[in-house]
From TrEMBL, chain A:
Record-given protein name: Ubiquitin-fold modifier-conjugating enzyme 1
Entry keyword set: Ubl conjugation pathway
Subunit text: Interacts with UBA5 (via C-terminus). Interacts with UFL1. Interacts with UFM1. Interacts with KIRREL3.
Organism listed in the record: Mustela putorius furo
One term of GO molecular function: UFM1 conjugating enzyme activity
SUPFAM superfamilies reported for this sequence: UBC-like
Automatic annotation (TrEMBL), chain B:
GO cellular component, one term: cytosol
A Pfam family: ThiF
Organism: Mustela putorius furo (European domestic ferret)
Name under which the protein is recorded: Ubiquitin-like modifier-activating enzyme 5
Transmembrane parts of this sequence: none
Family: Belongs to the ubiquitin-activating E1 family. UBA5 subfamily.
Domain THIF-type NAD/FAD binding fold: 2-192
UniProt entry tagged with the keyword Ribonucleoprotein: no
Gene Ontology biological process terms from the UniProt entry: protein ufmylation
GO molecular-function terms, A-Z: ATP binding; metal ion binding; UFM1 activating enzyme activity
Alphabetical UniProt keywords: ATP-binding, Metal-binding, Nucleotide-binding, Ubl conjugation pathway, Zinc
Amino acid sequence: MADEATRRVVSEIPVLKTNAGPRDRELWVQRLKEEYQSLIRYVENNKNADNDWFRLESNKEGTRWFGKCWYIHDLLKYEFDIEFDIPITYPTTAPEIAVPELDGKTAKMYRGGKICLTDHFKPLWARNVPKFGLAHLMALGLGPWLAGEIPDLIQKGV
Amino acid sequence: MNRLFFQPHQAGLSKVQAAEYTLRNINPDVLFEIHNYNITTVENFQHFMDRISNGGLEEGKPVDLVLSCVDNFEARMTINTACNELGQTWMESGVSENAVSGHIQLIIPGESACFACAPPLVVAANIDEKTLKREGVCAASLPTTMGVVAGILVQNVLKFLLNFGTVSFYLGYNAMQDFFPTMSMKPNPQCDDRNCRKQQEEHKKKVAALPKHEVAPEEEEIIHEDNEWGIELVSEVSEEELKNSSGPVPDLPEGITVAYTIPKKQEDSVAEVTVEDSGESLEDLMAKMKNM
């Protein structure tokens, strides 16, 4: 399970109400609004905690998302592009975040740059459908992955 | 699945392309139609559903059976969503992360449990996990286990299509002890998938309309009288920290458990912050995010 610090951060991310996927038309728009509100709040929290580590935006339909994330290690700031599609079974299944620049550089990644999340993530997500949204995916998925993989990659000189 | 047909000289081809070549060499009389895309995206899903409903032996007719041989939860859920919506019978198959157990499942929307009716079933491993899991590696793979699962899957397909023997609704395979649990699961009336619930209603109506003597119970629970191997039900779930955060475990026969449980929906003991509706439009919110 995630450590104390992550749990605290996640508890401050607003949870979502609408259980709707990209095929649900009006309800999806409602869900998108909730996603954005939750994300905005999360980014605000991050800025206040001096830990502003990502930006995300989407296409008009909200089905394709892209952005950047940063990781600071030894006083150096590393920046990566990130992207993902919303699967039609969202929010029952979480999107797969991809970091294309790191494709092929680590074992914890599928072909195409999709990050490999731990055993804990999927059951945790499933237990919290539909309350978890993209902000939670970032906090519980991408965040810990960066924290685990980047120092390792730096050390290997990749 | 690709361990079963991919050959070294096919390096560089997509899995479906290599599969077609290998299979065509085995039996040139079979008709193939291949598509290489991610079915979970909105664009591709529509095409996927279209091929299920129109790609039968005669173009325009639905297929008779769908076999799922994918390797991840998301793709299975997607197939489940499509089949529930189309009322399409399908068989799901899979091999565990540690490669020493697998299963097949027959899903008739409305009649048997769909993939979303219950959390993913896991054939209890009953082995010391530490002997298998290696640090830093996510998954193991044994083409032998996959061969066995592929064999029982096709066997079940033959029985289903040619109407002989007993078609298993669920058949598990525990390679470590050579244990093959079977069972059938009724659909969940509170399934998260709206179409599953709808299919259940339709099925009930169909059953009620049948003359009484035609309804034959085909589900039989297999009870193992002598447990000479001392097979125990070991829960694979490691998230069960708090009792009240776990949900009900479905009634399952020996050797099968759920990968995790979903807690009951009502009480929220932990105070959570919910998104408030600030009244801003979607465009406003998108712009706000961009300007941060």
